[in-house]
Amino acid sequence: MTIQQSKDLILEIERLSQINQLILDSVAEGIYGIDLNAKVIFWNKSAEILTGYKIEDFENDNLHDLIHHTNPAGEHVPVVECPVYHALNNGTSLYVTDDIFWRKDGTSFPVEFTIKPMVEKGTQVGTVITFRDITEKLQTEELILQWEKLSMVGQMAAGVAHEIRNPLTSLKGFLQLMKSNKVFNDQYYDIMS
Question: Residue 53 has what pLDDT?
Answer without folding.
Answer: 96
